What we know:
Elements: E1 2-6, H1 7-18, E2 32-37, E3 41-47, E4 51-58, E5 73-77, E6 79-84, H2 85-94, E7 99-105, E8 108-113, E9 116-121, E10 139-143, H3 144-154, E11 169-175, E12 178-184, E13 188-195, E14 197-199, E15 207-210, H4 211-219, E16 227-232, E17 236-240, E18 244-249, E19 268-272, H5 274-285, E20 295-300, E21 303-310, E22 314-321, E23 323-325, E24 329-333, H6 335-343, E25 350-354, E26 361-366, E27 369-373
Antiparallel strand pairs: 1-5, 1-7, 2-3, 2-6, 3-4, 4-18, 7-8, 8-9, 10-14, 10-16, 11-12, 11-15, 12-13, 13-27, 16-17, 17-18, 19-23, 19-25, 20-21, 20-24, 21-22, 25-26, 26-27
Amino acid sequence: MKIICDREKLREALAVVNNVIPAKSTKPVLENVCLVATVDAIEILGTDLECSVRFRIPVSDGSGEGDMKMPLVKVIEPGIAVVPSRVTLDFVRDLSGSEVELTTHEQNCVIQSGEDKCELVTVDPDEFPVISSFGDTPTLSIQGGNFTRLVGRTAFAAAREAGRYAMHGVLAEVEDGMLKLVATDGRRLALSTMECQSRPVDRSRPAIVPTKGMQLFCRVITDPLEQVQLHFGENQVGLKTKNAEIFARLIDGEFPRYAAVIPKESGNYIEADPEMLARKLRLVANVTGTEARAVRMRLTPNNLELFGQSVGRGEAHARLDVTFKGAAAEIAFNPDFVLEGLKNCESPVLRLEFNEKTSPGKFTLGENYIYIVMPITVDT
């Protein structure tokens, strides 16, 4: 293999692929990237067996006109090289030249730019796992920026600590031309939907996508206006952009029956400025301790009072004007959960609905976007 590549494009590709490369693996070959040079492109492949990336740098990205199009890659001799992932990225990143030459010789790969040179030991390509690729399979099409927003609205609510494995992913459902994502850790739940286009069939069976996979999908979306393609297979989901294909193994498990915790009707609701509510919440939460992370909300007509306290720190009180409907009521939440949801609020006015202090709070944070938070029982 012998190629000459635009250094910055190669650095960007290696950085994306490195997101899935394990720092230490029981299978050492997984700590490498596979470089595949063909006549019209170079592909950089990486995997940890749960998520896989196939990033393509074409000979030209079409910029410029006629003969002025600048080549991103010059493939002098096609071939394959499997090289240490992080060393390759670090070396390419620190080079000062605008172009990088990669050449394989026997069992080594030479990376050179100007007078700077690095020679890496390669791994037998036959040892590298087979990475999936998109074929002529049915896909869903959604605008890249909309998909990124959809993930940002929901993935933060997925479980992080040990527990039910299915909660460590984001549930994806497709119905009637809408893509729905749901995430929960058992104490709060985020649900959002957006329009998508299916060709030629919808995905009828729900799929649980690892949170890491969703985050990787978003990292490769560089143009928010680009239509990206999603494919749901039997045991994996793939996302395709202009230059990248990412695959994530689906989580095998039963996702919680989330519809049961979403209030159908509520006797109390408030409408408030999300930025002001977030500010007041942070203010009162400052005095709450880690052992009792709770803020009480007391609602009366056009008035919301917030209370926080902890032994050894003291207590805090704040208020703000709201639109309120219902009887005088009180409810308490973990302020961190509420604040995480408010960060993603896309509406100038949020709506909080609940029935009583022991029932879930339903926050409406935007169009087709709800966030459920379970209340906390506190001594008053």
